[in-house]
Structure formats: structure tokens, C-alpha cells
Write a structure and sequence with these properties.
mainly alpha; 219 residues; 0% strand; elongated; Arc Repressor Mutant, subunit A; 12 helices; 2 domains; Tetracycline Repressor, domain 2; single chain
């Protein structure tokens, strides 16, 4: 797994310089192919054709199909990283108790919309389907995306509690409870019903209302 991550984050195999436009095109094409066909049924020749590059270019940029698959899976975690960064910024800007709930509502709404978006759900199904073949990759995806989001919410609540804006004994446990109540049942249903529609604006608001009514992290 460490080798796969080095290939994703650094230069290409054998120190080759990355061709970013070609690399981005390959990742886009590979994402569509893997989501449609799974890992085993997807060939690098088909990915190369869809990306309008040579098969050798795919190998030059990623080394092999396993590394390319890892790039596709871990690329989705950028959304979780962005959520964590925005959450930290938004909650640190809160200075009064009456600002806490509006800020938290907006963040929870974005969290639910991201987790339940069709593309994120499709990648999650793919990771679960291939977890037996790529256990380390599945664990890394979980660490960088679902677990990282809960950790970010917990850290944000902990900061609010430290500043006396909320009263919480265990902010990280509250964050985990919020995650489950907010998206748990909806996520469980969506994973088993790939044709289910993404929640609309009204449904997202209802999910946030329910989560805050059940967990009450505002103190």
C-alpha cells in the first residue's frame, strides 16, 4: 500500500516526470471504467482509449492497473479533506453562542450532501466490492474519508467546547453519533439501491433537523 501511495503522490514509476494533463485524463477515464465494470473487468487498453492516450502512457504515469485503481479511489478523499478544512475555518469564526447552530447546520447539510452524492456512493460501493482484493486500500480510504470527516467534526466541537460556546463531555463521541444519525440509515439504503435518487434540498434539511434533535450537540 505504501508503494501505491508513493506512486500517487510523487513522480511516476522509475522517477518519470508526471504529465498532468494526460494523468488527469487517465484518472477520469479510469474512474468511469472502474465504476461501470469493476477492477477485474476493466483493461488498461480500454482506459487508454477512453483517455485518448497510448497504453504505454498509462503505464508511464501509473506503473500498473493496481496503482491507477488506488489513484481513483484515494482521489475521492479530496472532498473529505476540503470538508475538514472548511469546517475548521467556519467553526473557528464562530464567536457567540447564537452563531453555533447556523454554522453547524450548514456544515452538517454539506456533510450529508457529500456523503450521499451519487459519485461518492458509487466509489464507496466499488471500494467495498474490492475490499477483499485491496484491504489496505479500503482501510486507507476509510481513514482519509469517513473517519477523517468524523474526526474533523469532533475537533470542531471540541474547539467550541473549549471556548465555552457548547457544553460537551465527549465531543468526538458526539461527532460519531451525529454522523450515524445524520446519514447512517440513508447511506445504508443507498448502498443497496444504486438507482435511488440523491436527497433533494428538503430531504437534506430534514436529515439535519433530525440529527440535531436526536443528538443535541449545542448544549
Amino acid at each position: 500500500m505504501d508503494e501505491l501511495i508513493v506512486r500517487i503522490d510523487g513522480t511516476g514509476p522509475s522517477g518519470r516526470r508526471r504529465d498532468e494533463p494526460a494523468r488527469a485524463a487517465i484518472v477520469r477515464a479510469a474512474t468511469e471504467q472502474f465504476l461501470a465494470e469493476g477492477f477485474q473487468a476493466t483493461g488498461t487498453d480500454r482506459i487508454a482509449a477512453a483517455a485518448a492516450v497510448s497504453k504505454q502512457t498509462v503505464y508511464n504515469q501509473f506503473g500498473d492497473k493496481r496503482s491507477l485503481f488506488a489513484a481513483v479511489v484515494l482521489g475521492v478523499t479530496a472532498m473529505a479533506e476540503a470538508f475538514g478544512a472548511d469546517l475548521t475555518t467556519a467553526l473557528r469564526a464562530v464567536e457567540r453562542q447564537d452563531e453555533v447552530e447556523p454554522a453547524l447546520r450548514g456544515l452538517l447539510r454539506r456533510w450529508a450532501a457529500t456523503v450521499l452524492s451519487p459519485r461518492v456512493l458509487a466509489v464507496r460501493r466499488l471500494v467495498i466490492a474490492e475490499a477483499g482484493r485491496f484491504p489496505e486500500l479500503a482501510a486507507e480510504y476509510h481513514r482519509r474519508a469517513p473517519a477523517a470527516s468524523v474526526q474533523a467534526v469532533g475537533a470542531g466541537l471540541e474547539d467550541l467546547a473549549r471556548r465555552g460556546l457548547v457544553r460537551l463531555d465527549d465531543p468526538h463521541r458526539v461527532a460519531a453519533d451525529l454522523a450515524f444519525v445524520l446519514v447512517g440509515p440513508e447511506l445504508d439504503h443507498a448502498l443497496f439501491h444504486p438507482d435511488a435518487a440523491a436527497p433533494d434540498e428538503q430531504r437534506l434539511d430534514a436529515l439535519v433537523d433530525h440529527a440535531l434533535a436526536v443528538v443535541r450537540p449545542l448544549g
